[in-house]
Amino acid sequence: xxxxxxxxxxxxxxxxxxxxxxTAWASTPARAKAQYCADLDGYRPFGEIVRSLRCRxxxxxxxxxxxxxxxxxxxxxxxxxxxxxxxxxxxxDAGWRGHYYTDLDDTDMQALxxxxxxxxxxxxxxxxxxxxxxxxxxxxAAGEQPQYPHETTxxxxxxxxxxxxx
Length: 166
Fold this sequence. Notes:
By secondary structure, the protein is of the alpha+beta class. The protein folds into two domains: 6-65, no CATH class; 70-143, Arc Repressor Mutant, subunit A (Orthogonal Bundle). It contains six helices and eight strands, in the order βββααββαβαββαα. The longest helix has 11 residues, at 77-87. It starts with 5 loop residues before the first strand and ends in a 6-residue tail after the last helix.
């Protein structure tokens, strides 16, 4: 079954003390408010801010995240990591980059160039060179983006936290 594109919902947040609304991308209004409050760095007590904050859906600012590219499942995790790193990671600002800098002897990069995921983009300097993501590489990296980078599920959080047994 083919995967479909995912929508990262946009929320417009307005506080009585601010002139312009802020935008947060979250699955629910409560998570959008929590994200807004986390960005304030202790401006006011959390409860006071949440009570006065207005949150409305802003579908015009939604972000469409493409489905996972079929090649992504066939790539070794280290190669997929190189592609995502070159794309700029997996946060809200992903996609800002588009290059990777490594030495000429990097066999992983040579394999990615061979498969047209990267292309050499600069002259060789001291045995190193920049490689640029091709459109295929950008599509693969875009499909690896989480729907909501600021949100984690309880299951994922437990998986990252080692269990302490006494």
